[in-house]
Write a sequence for this structure.
């Protein structure tokens, strides 16, 4: 006859013997906690005692110019991300194409836009009239480039086309994560490559790429601050315009930082909810 015995842990043995379990003190954890709390208190004390007019922070937090800047930041983020998604999808399909020309062209685009700083791209688009004085639409009209390249359009092209290079790599990785058998099954039922991509591959890849795409969108919120260099009226630019007049520099920078933080705080839980919703579809 076989007698089955359950494993007894050290804690169970100590409890049965009437001994009191003593936890060892993790001095490394205690030390790191003390350092973190000390650093936070030091920073809080510096802000409390620094030459900051907190009344001005509250005063300018909801002024119309700042709220217009918040709206402009959100608008640019959504538009640039949409452009980046469209460009990124084309690049991802091109990188995975069996044809040489689309592969090389997509790779060259990614190499160029990932290699040039975003602020430089924005300045080039904003000063495009120095290279192309006029934009000619054959049979329609000729437009002066200086009139066409407004701060909004320059920021949209600079941020969106740059974002497309990164999104293209994210989508490429997502498409490559799908088993090759999915493509072969689609071909067997008579689907073309594009139909299979739209109906079968992309819906599955979406579950993989949503987390990094969410991070890219949150990063785009902060990246729009670079558009202040070309006079796009996002929240940082409007804050700068105000402190140029009243010299309350740090107060207006805190106001701008507050709004960036609030936007990210609202968007982060929405991203996590979307990720959980898509994850349920995998079970």
């Amino acid at each position: 006859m076989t007698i089955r015995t359950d494993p007894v842990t050290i804690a169970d043995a100590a409890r049965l013997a009437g001994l009191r379990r003593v936890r060892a003190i993790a001095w490394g954890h205690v030390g790191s906690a003390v350092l973190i709390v000390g650093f936070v208190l030091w920073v809080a004390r510096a802000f409390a005692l620094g030459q900051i007019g907190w009344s001005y922070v509250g005063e300018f937090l909801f002024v119309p110019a700042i709220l217009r800047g918040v709206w402009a930041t959100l608008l640019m983020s959504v538009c640039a991300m949409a452009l980046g998604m469209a460009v990124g999808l084309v690049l991802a399909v091109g990188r995975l194409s069996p044809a040489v020309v689309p592969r090389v062209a997509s790779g060259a685009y990614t190499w160029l836009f990932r290699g040039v700083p975003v602020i430089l791209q924005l300045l080039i688009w904003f000063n495009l009239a120095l290279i192309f004085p006029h934009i000619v639409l054959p049979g329609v009209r000729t437009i002066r480039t200086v009139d066409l390249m407004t701060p909004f359009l320059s920021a949209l092209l600079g941020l969106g086309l740059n974002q497309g290079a990164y999104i293209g790599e994210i989508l490429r990785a997502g498409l490559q994560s799908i088993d090759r058998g999915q493509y072969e099954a689609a071909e067997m039922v008579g689907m073309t490559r594009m139909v299979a991509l739209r109906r079968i591959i992309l819906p599955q890849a979406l579950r993989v790429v949503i987390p990094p795409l969410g991070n890219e969108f949150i990063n785009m919120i902060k990246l729009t601050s670079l558009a202040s260099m070309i006079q796009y009226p996002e929240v940082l630019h409007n804050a700068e315009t105000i402190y140029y007049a009243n010299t309350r520099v740090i107060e207006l920078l805190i106001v701008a930082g507050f709004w960036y933080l609030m936007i990210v705080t609202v968007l982060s839980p929405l991203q996590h909810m979307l990720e959980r919703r898509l994850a349920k579809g995998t079970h």
Notes: The longest helix spans residues 64-95. The chain has twelve helices and two strands. The beta strands are 134-137, 141-144. The chain has a mean pLDDT of 84.
